Amino acid sequence: MDWTPYIAGIGIGVLSCFAFLISDKPLGCSTSFSNTSGMIERLFGGKKTEEKEYYKKYKLGIDWQWMLVAGIVVGVFLTSVISGGFVIEWVPSTFGEKFGYNPLLRWIFALIGGILIGLGSRWAGGCTSGHGISGALQLAVSSWIAVVMFFIAGIATAMLLYGVV
Amino acid sequence: MLEDIRKNKKLQLLIGFIIGLFFGFFLYIGGVTEYDVIIGQLLLTDFVVLKVMMTAIIVGMLGIYIMKGRQLVGLHIRQGSIGSTVIGGLIFGIGFAILGYCPGTVAGAVGHGAMDALFGGVVGILIGSGIFASLYPSLNKKILNKGEFSHLTIPEMFGVNPWFVVIPFVLLILLILLGLEYLGI
Known about the structure:
The complex is a heterodimer. Chain A contains 9 helices and no strands. Chain A has helices spanning 4-23, 30-45, 47-50, 53-57, 64-83, 93-99, 103-124, 130-137, 141-161. In chain A, helix 8 packs antiparallel against helix 9. By secondary structure, chain B is mainly α. Helices cover 75% and strands 0% of the residues of chain B. The radius of gyration of chain B is 19 Å and the shape is globular. At the A-B interface, helix 1, helix 2, helix 4, helix 5 and helix 6 of A face helix 1, helix 2, helix 3, helix 4 and helix 5 of B.
């Protein structure tokens, strides 16, 4: 039996508790992406960007969650370099075996999937961490419904893409 | 003392970063920053993603509700609705399968050198979020508030003490995990 998923899960559960206790914040990731998107837009649009209704509600700037996501990148980088798992890879093997190892094709998939994720996570008010972990562990009605929707649509789409059904 | 730490903005940025470092560490050792593992979950051939999430949920749920009972923490819950949670959740799920990462794991995948995550996933999520921000005023008027859920939490919905929900949830999830191990998936 492989214990690592459980060790990882326990670790993330404990981190959630720390985040609530010392920062009064739930773990979440997707807001940082809309924050970054707004900050990039602000470089060109200036004040006009800040006056968008959405960015009045969710203020732009480097905040706690933005640092959390930056921490994820650095944390995985350090762990993978130390453990020897760091590899520059353009096409993951499951994708490559099904659709071929063409980086351009994989890039198009990733870009389209990313756009839908950016749109959907803001639309639903959270992602796999904000709803799927933080909201679910607080027993939030909206989060359990969101996570069921994520997986229903995710499983159906993956099975269609990979021709399982 | 807790209040001082929570109000210290610079310290909070550092704490956010440190929690992120560990979050990344756990996501990586769990294997969930890999496209292959996430797609395996969505194709129902590999249940690592579910194991990590379910374990995190029961540990966090027990911790949060114990601390809440002692008034150490408050909940942070978003009101949901059919127009926002259901429609947004379905759009997210479709993207989840096409990209093969979510916003947290895409950041992790960038960290171990996944170029599809960096140039495709991250760029796409930034574009998608920007599109949402532009559509927000009209979506907010027409769709997002349609069919609001009447309650914030499941215990409120049933009108019971949270522990009457926490304990059965923890037991049910443990049973599911035991079942997965028993089946060897």
